# Entry
Amino acid sequence: MGQVGLAGAFAGLNIFDNSTSVTFDPSTSSLLSRTSDGALAALGSTNSGGSISSGCALNDAFYFAGSFSSIGNTSASNIASYTPSSGAFAALGSNGPNGAVNALYCDASHNKLWVGGHFTSPGSSVAVWDAKANAWSPPPFGGFTGAEAEVLSITPNSSDSSLFFAGSFLTSFAGNGITMNNTNNPNVPYSPGATPFSSSLVPIPLQGAEIEGAPSSTNPEFSNIQNILCPAGPDGPGNTWLAADGNAAQITVRAFSSISAYGVRLGNTFQSGYGTTGFSVTSIPDNTVQTLQYVDPATGQNMTCTDTCPLSTNSAILYQDFLFSGPVTLTGVQITLSEYTGAAPGLHILQLLSAGAFASAIENDNTQSCFAPDPSNITSTGTWTPKNANTNIPATLQTVLVSTVAVGTPSSQAPSFTWQPYVSASGQYDVNLVIPGCTDFQDCPLRTTVQVTVFPGDGSHYVTTVSQQNTNDASTLVYSGPIVPSSPNFVTTVSMTLADNPAGDGQGGQYELVAGNVELVLTSANISSSSGSGSTGGNGTMGIGGTVNGFGFFEWPLSSASDVNASTTLSNSTETFFDTVGFDLYNALGATTSTSTIAAVVQHPSGAIFLGGNFKITEGSTTGNANIVVFKNGNLAALTGNGLNGAVTSLVLYGDQLFVGGSFSDTNSASTQGKLRGVAMYNVQSASWSALGEGVNGIVASLALANGQIQVAGNFTEVLSASGAGAEDGGFAVWDVGTDSWVNSGGFLVGNITFVGNGTSPAKGQEQSQFVAGNVDNMATYGASGLVMLSNGNNGPVVTPLGVQLDDPVNASATTSAKRRRNHNRRVPGSWIPHITLRNLFTRQTTSSQPTALPPLPPSPAPAILAGAFWTNTSSSQELAIIGGNFSFPTSSASSQAVAIYNPSGPSVTTLQGSQVNGVVRSLLVDENKLFVGGEFTMSGSAANGFAVYDLVAQQWDTSAVQALQPATGSTVVVRSVTATAYKSDIIVVGGSFSTAGSTACQGICLLDTASNQWNALGEGFQGEVSSVSYAGNNDELLIAAGSINLSGSTSTNVAQYSFANSTWTAVGDGADIPGPVTAVEVNNGNVSSIFAAGRSYDGSSTFMIFWDGASWTTVGSSLEGTTNISQLVMVPLQNTHTANSIIESDRMLMVSGSLADSSFGSASAALFDGVNLIPYVTSVSAQGTLGYVSSLFYSFASFSFTQQHFLATGVVILISIAIAAGVVFLLALIGILWTLLSRRDDKLGKFDGGEDEDDDSTHHRPSSLLEHINAATRTTILGTQSPFNNFTSEKGEAAPEGAVASAVDPDPFGPDGSNYLRAETPSDAVVGTLAAEEEFSRPAHARYSFDGTGEGELPLSAGLEVEILDDRDAAWWYARNPQSGQEGVVPAAYLY
# Structure
């Protein structure tokens, strides 16, 4: 058969086996194995409500963990192992983690398994399993506490020498300096309500501001609001402000100039009967209630509030710092004291905190800040004069100093200006030079560039050239890094003078230099070692405070022999360089650490560490960045777009490509138009984001990297191409890095997939296998968008799924977001069940002039492949598959649909050039280099209607030469069959639903002469619709058409034979024996006396499959249920033979495809029929989890003959071994006969006594021997077939009936020769032609043998007598009427035809 393809409407496919049925309970979590080519296999499921979230491979075992109490039949608490070689699950000892496990790391070098999660034993959040000793222990550092005390990720550094732990926890290290007030800033009084970060922010001097508190207390000792800006003493008279009794209060601060503030510092009053308990802060002039972040002094947890915020009434809390989400430009604030205790609210301290530090060019603005020993200062050379301008903030005025200098003046002789800002504490700062816009000052022509030099305090200086030609106000970064005072008297300086090469021409020969403000923005209160070498000594931090806190990140060297406790304060000797990541996170997240998590970490070979999770930076230089940051060059840094707009769950690094999964849709700045849905790629070198198509339509929980592909697991139902088209994919998808496209994952899953990870190391030359876990609704071993390729393998058929991702057609209606899913219940095949004749199970239809319509085509939800053909491209010598159906796929220019060329070796799919098919393709034929396409479609710019021709060499549609098909009134054209015959070249036969072809009247079937492109009718008298066409004869000289067919004389036949030699149609058998329209037909190796047909009954309630033996139609496959739809019948070869029988030879089987429901094996999409049994072969499932169906099997040999033995290594040779001993067959046959005989109303077994002497010449009695009766009756009772012979030869040599047409006598198929094959070209003379007797409630039949009918209720028969069958519901005995005598009674069914 050559190459073989199996096509249909399915997303997943299984090869049926006899194993225990596999069903899934979505309330459990299932563990699956995944081969390197993507094939899936179910291994086991947890208890209901269980979950699997992580896994890793160590030695020959795969360890997996989550929250469960059992897996398969094994009791295991939250963690277990699976050994692929034995297929066994095992628990990991006793005393394991007593809570959920989120992360695993397999340390192969030490043979240990590191476990992280939310538990308290064996360690707090972390435990270690020694795989050699089979024992649990806490980690060497004890574990973590604080925040949520939960580990979400354990990953190695880039050299695998240390582990990074991430999650929601706190760490603390001893600082290098002397402990002062337990805070990083010795100049600020200690308070548990402050942080090292907030205490380093210099308060903004408010001496010149307008401050009003109302209503104020009438007590003069507590009514002056100015007293609380920097109180001179403790809480009490002269140092505290109280509101009027019985009133809430508002404090309004107006600076009338633009200032940059980071928050407020409030100290409560503890005067008896007074105190504030709740407040809010509104910024002026935008009148915005600010969200504040703070540390709860009672718990140490970071908190967030808006309205109303709590203020502690604990007298041990001197003050609390409440920070904005980032620096805010404002002109004032309004603080509403809305809740209080006692008589009225009050405050002891009120300060507005800056972004870090500051200095103004206007000397009077540099007043002394509270807690500062000295104010900021300025110095200058040359002449500087004030200059005013209005700002865009109402009621504010901006004042700067300017100095003019002649064009051409050297910078060394030009005026200079130096700012000396007061810096409260060491830290990481961004130094910005604020440059007023020239438009407001109306001095743009005078502006030029200046040289700025920063001395941060570490003995070095940094020089930057800055343009002052900006039209609007600008803040230019002139330095970013540590500021560390070298002595108590040292101050940071920022100096400015004319640039060495000033820009611009000036005006009137003059340049103007402008001095405004300098702002220092604190980004971190911790200072990293200047070496940046990553050394692990005690020099990792240089903060002055007694302890350094970290959040969500901790590094542990695998070689460390330290025995410490990370749940307490660690010695700085254990601190590593990368522990700074945790310190910076602690400061950058500020009050949000209680709601933040770090869920994923990965280190780039350059040393940069990427951290993803659920967080938002609220302090420092990366303020506003969310959910993903990078730590490089000793600092946290923002990614392009300020991170992502949703949480990050997983990170995978592939070279310089960082793949990110989570619940986001875009960057935080919305720079990709919402195309980063759930998964994205960040290029480390170019610092740019890229979409994976357009992502997925849900949340991604886990990512993995294997074999050059990214595996994506989560809770989604579609992957989205770059065009936005969605392809259904139920929770597991694969992105190919090389082609930058979504590709077939190889298997099929429907569910909420929570984990994917690599399995044990592959053998040499093999690729990486994986494990997948989650809440599975449905699964199939192979995943494909409607096509798999089949080839021969050592242990069964080798299945290669379609290697590309197909989408819904571009004009398909939108599907709802809710996907219907159900379990696919697979039943094991039952015991052997015979097929029997059951014609009267189907409702009969009376003869009419118009054929009944064909059954509706089965639904084919996109993407579906319904037809295929092979073509050898002579230019490349490649054998390609051409596929057609209901699908689309993206191309470089647009989206193509319905038909494509598929290269399995690529794999790749290419479009047919020219106009696109709009509709569904149902049939394909390649004849030489012409492609004939049939279906229900139109084409833009063409009259093509359901049929078109494409030149594969010229790569263009041949639409002008062939006239279009036309439908009957009120219907549409549907072409279901396009075939060629070996009888004559240049002939194509097209079958379907249509009335004319161009001007040629040829209803349902028409012949196309490809040489002249002319349509021709096939004979005369044919009416109806054709569903399937096959050929018979030695040279395809006979065409067998099936469907809903009437021949001349309004005879309903549904299977008809056309002779090319004499151009005539004849019915195949009695049309009354065919229960309804036929949907599929197959001729067994050209044998006109061996035809199979299948379809649905006239009322649509039942399915039938029947066999023509040259004499009559009989039912086979009677175990098929009414919901079955059969789309194709095709004979396939076997490698192993089955037991021969009278219907199908031992070297082949009939493959029955469609959507099959059977009482013995359940559901299937394809089954093999050996003449006796239906053997399930393939099951499939749709993308929604419902049953799929197989539409066709197609192969590359243009003509296939069993006598030629075309079995190629690359072709399909179905490996079915059926061993049914002859004794078993006879026993089953005998049991069936005994049941038949005993079912008669009277016991007449004596009538079949072989000793009963009959006249040798008589033909008016039944066969004389019991064996002969068994032979005759078994054809109906066991095999469901009539005798294929005209004459019966008994043991006593009965002659042929009188008047019967003589014919050759074939040996009994149950005789001693054992061949059991129907002989080719031996149709029964008795039934050749058409029976046109009118049917109402009866049907005609003829007696094959005589029957004496002497028993009660029996009807006597004479051979050749025509009778009317009134009831044939019993398989063995039918109720009939003799129309000549009017007598009625029962007769043996086997005696009639």
